[in-house]
Each structure stands twice: as C-alpha cells, then as structure tokens.
Amino acid sequence: MLFLQLLANGLQVGAIYALTAAGFSLIFGSTKIFHFAHGATFAIAAYLFHFALAGLGMHWTFAVLLAAVSAVVFGILLDRLMYAPIQRHEGSFFTVFVASFGIGIVVQNLLGSVFGRGFMSVATPLSNSVEVIPGIYLSPLNGLAIVSAIICFAALHLFLTRTFVGKGMRALSENPELVRTFGLSPRRLSTYAFALGSLLVVPGAIFTAAGTGINPAVGHHVMLISLAATIVGGIGSLRGAACAGLLIGVAENLAMWKLGTQWSEAITFAILFFFIIFKPSGFFGRQTVS
Amino acid sequence: MTAYILNLLVLISVYAILSTTLNFIIGYAGIFSLAHAVFFGIGGYTAALVAMHVSPEFFVAIPIAMAAAAGTSLLLALPALRVRGEYFVAASLGLQVLAVTLFSEWKSFTGGIGGVIGIPSVELFGYPVYKPWQFLIISLICLAIIIVIIRTLVHTSFGRSLKAIRDSESAALASGKNITVIKTLSVVLSSSLAAVAGALYAFYMSFINVESFMLDTSVLVMAMVIIGGTATILGPLLGAGLLMLLPSALTYLWFLPQTEIGSIQQIVYGLAMVLLMIFRPGGIVSSHPGGGK
C-alpha cells in the first residue's frame, strides 16, 4: 500500500519536475545559455501565487495569471539585461553560469527577507486528500498536476513542430548562423525561448505552492532537479528531460519506501553521477562528450 | 575586541586556504568544482577522529586528513576526465549533495547532525596549541606554504600544461600532454590541500558538524575566487578577506535590520557576482584586464 501511495506521489512530483526540466532544456537547447536562475523563476512564480491567493485574497484565476506574467517577465528581463550584455563581449559557459548562479542567490534571499524563511502552503479546496481505495490517499491536485503536465507537453509539441516561431527555435538550437542567414533574428528567438521556458515553470510552481508547500530554497532545489533531469535525459532533448523528470520524481519518492526522507535528494544525485560518468549523453542526447 | 579580531583573522586564513586551492583548479585547470566543501569536511572529520583516537600531533593528523581527501577526490577526478563544462558542474554538485547526506547520516564517522564534539587541542611536537594567536600563526604559515606550492607549480611545466589544457584540450593532447594524469593530479592536489583547511578548522573550533560543509560553503568559496579574480594569486586572498569581513562590516550599518544580516550578505555577493560577470569577468584582480577567461 505504501508503495502505491509513494508511486502516486512520485508521479505528481515527477510531472512537475518534467515541466520545469523541459523549460530549462528548451532554453539551454536553443540559446546555449546555462540558465541556473530558472529555479529563481520557479520560486518567484510560486511566492507571487501564494501571496495573491493567501495575502491579497484574489480569485485563483488572477493569482495564476499573476504567477504566469511574473515568470515570463522575469525570464525576459534576465535574457535582455544580463545574458545579452555578457554574450556580447565574451559569454563563455563559465561567465554565464556564475552570473546566473548569482541571481539565484539574490532572489532566494530577497524572497526569504520579504516573505519569511519558513515553509508556507496555501490550502485550496482541491488540496484535501481523500481515501480513494483503503490506504491510498489522493487529492484532486495530484491528478490535476499530471493532467496539466500532459496538456502542456502536447501544446509545446504542437508549438515547436507547427508554428513558425517554434520551428525557428528548433533551428536556433541546430545552427544559429543559418537562422541569421535565413533572415530571422537569433536575439528575438532567444527572447521567445526564455518567455516560453519560463512559462513552463508556472504549473509546477502553483501545484507546489498549493500542495507540499514552498520555502525560499525551493527554487534552488527545483533547479538542481531540473539540471539533473536535463542531463540524465540528454541535453537538448525535451522528451528526454520530461522522461528523466518523471523518473527522478518517482525514484525520489520510492527512495522513502526503503530509506528515509533524507536520502531522496541523494538518490537523485546518485542517478545523475552515474549517468555523467557512464553515459554523459543521457537517454536521448546527442554525443556531447568533451 | 582583540579576541574578536583574532577569531576573524583565523577564519579568514582558513577560508583563504580554501579559495587558493579552489582557484588552482578553477583558474589554472579550468575545472569548475562546486564540491570544495566536501574536501574541507573530509579534512575536518578525519583530523578530528585522528586527534581523538590516535594522536593529537599536528604532523600526524594533517597528513592523514590530506590522504583521506586525496583518496576521495578521485571520485571527482573521474567525471572531470570524461566531461567538460556544464556536465562537470553538475557532477560536482551531485558529489556535494551526496556528501552532505553522508556527513549527516554516517554517525560513526561524523556524529550525524550533532557533529563531533570535544576535539582535543592539537599538539606541535608535543606542545599543545590552543591559544587563538598560536592558531593564527599556524594557519598563516600553512597558507603561506600552500601559496608557495601553488605559485611554484603554476610556473613549472606542469602549470603550463594545465593552462594549455584549460585553453584547448585538443591542442594540448595534440602536443603530447598526458591529460589524464595532469587533470587527476591537479584535482588530487587541490583537494588534499583543502583538507589542511578542514583540519585547522576542526582543531580551532574543537567542534564541527555538517553545517560547515554544505553547498553554501562551496558557493561561498567559489564566490571568493570569482570576485577576487581567477588565475591570480592575490585574487582569492582578497576575495576571502572581503567576503569574510562583509558580515562584520554590515553590522556597523545601523539602518540594516540585524536579523537579516545573513541574507543581506548573500544578496551582496550574489549581486557582486552578476555585476562582475557583466562588466569585469576576470574578477577584481584580473589577470586579463578588460575581459578574458
């Protein structure tokens, strides 16, 4: 029974990880920017959603809208004000990573100072767990998280394969020079990638705020997980990131079955470490060693 | 007041050892590690256990601590040899997270969350060392020796090979450099020297627990190297001094809420990292003015 319960929790957490990792992978794949501050976007969306719903007493649709808008704006601002100037003069991996990491630290501490450092969670009518079959407790939120992840992935797939901008973004990841020759602006496509990638954290942020709860370090945690998922799945592969996110969510929860809660993060990173040493290209990745 | 300043100076020299040794792999070898606190920790725990169960002699505890860290560092060298850039950062993060879990769970070695208490004072040729100023002198001597070792190494053919690998691995390989050996040696050296800082820290505090060896510490040391300036001798020292003085300096700003000092300190160095990367990627003491690595 405990196994099934943990599996169900794992699927929900995995769905959230999959979406966040897909956002990171989309940005990294098409712009080659190692966007470590992606976790900060997640934390901002989650805190603003919580604040709008619990603090201001807004209707949930407005709270969702606020979270989505703030995530997208934050992503675009970082791209324009931080990554663009860095890439203009040099833009080595190292420089971009350090700047992005710095923003992550700033956001985490600002959120902690403004909203407090404790765990916060907002109760919604959907958060209450009911006993579905004896011993298994599920809340409507569990199902909703999984359904919305599936919808987001379907929409993302259609966008990337059917629309002009989507095709441009995929082209950007293959060959930026050709994109320029074709008359598209890599700069503008990069902004689109940031907007879309940041938008993908919103469902995860909302379900986390309404479910297990958030603290200022949540962005950091989520970032580590999406980084792990992106690499395990293969850099540049959205499908890989999604599968790996799901795998990590389930593994993390099943780890509690035999070991303690404190081992869940260690399990994720043991998987990551294993992949980096033995199969750095991940599930579906292109060969990128050295 | 003297005690306060002495304490600060000892901690600065311990962190200066950490930032100098991390700079050796970040700045010269181009290996970007977020796991430096792991070796700091291994050094600390090993030295504490040796002092408690074997001998509190400085020249016994330090070599054993260094050997333990050197052995573990092979785990870090393994991914460093196979992958570059973003993969290695992720691998070192993985090692750091795993190590924190082990540090807090492996109770017989680390005492768990509670840590190791009652570490005896260290002895130098049989004379116990426990006064802060004695510690300050020992840590400064260790720091000086480590700086000399690294400075000398950087100017030998080994150092030139390292820089060649950092700038272009395939070119170094083509000119006949044994990349495997060079990279492994640099990781092992950097980690074992970081263990010296761990041992000094354990003896000085006479109590250690996992809180000193978490990801935050790795990030702090990384910030010291980057803000001070990578691939320079002076940069990491300056970075360590600045970031260790920052909390005390902030307490003098009366208008800041005292409970938020920790956060404000992190915000300041986070912002410093962002601004430096945009305007001066080489750090304050830049080896390539106006840009470069």
Describe the structure.
The complex is a heterodimer of chains A (290) and B (293). Chain A is built from twelve helices and two strands; from the N terminus they run ααααββαααααααα. By secondary structure, chain A is mostly helical. Chain A has a domain at 23-217. Chain B is mainly alpha-helical and 293 residues long. Chain B has one domain. In chain B, the strands form two sheets. In chain B, strands 1-4 form a two-stranded antiparallel sheet. In chain B, α3 runs antiparallel to α9. In chain B, 51% of the residues are buried. Residues 289-293 of chain B have low confidence and may be disordered.
Total DSSP E strands of chain A: 2
Please report which band the strand proportion of chain A falls in: under 5%, 5-15%, 15-25%, 25-35%, 35-45% or over 45%: under 5%
Radius of gyration of chain B: 19 Å
Q: Strand count, sense and closure of the main sheet of chain A?
A: 2 strands, antiparallel
Given the structure, what is the number of helices of chain A?
12
Structural class of chain B: mainly alpha
Shape of chain B: globular
Overall number of strands of chain B = 4
Helices and strands of chain B, in order, run as HHHHHEEEHHHHEHHH
> SSE string of chain A, helix = H, strand = E?
HHHHEEHHHHHHHH
Compute the gyration radius of chain A: what is it?
Answer: 19 Å
Unreliable residue runs of chain B:
289-293
Helix content of chain B: over 70%
Q: Give the distance, in angstroms, between the N- and C-terminal Cα atoms of chain B.
A: 41 Å
GO molecular function (chain A): transmembrane transporter activity
Protein name (chain A): Branched-chain amino acid ABC transporter permease
Keywords (chain A): Amino-acid transport, Cell membrane, Membrane, Transmembrane, Transmembrane helix, Transport
Pfam family, one (chain A): BPD_transp_2
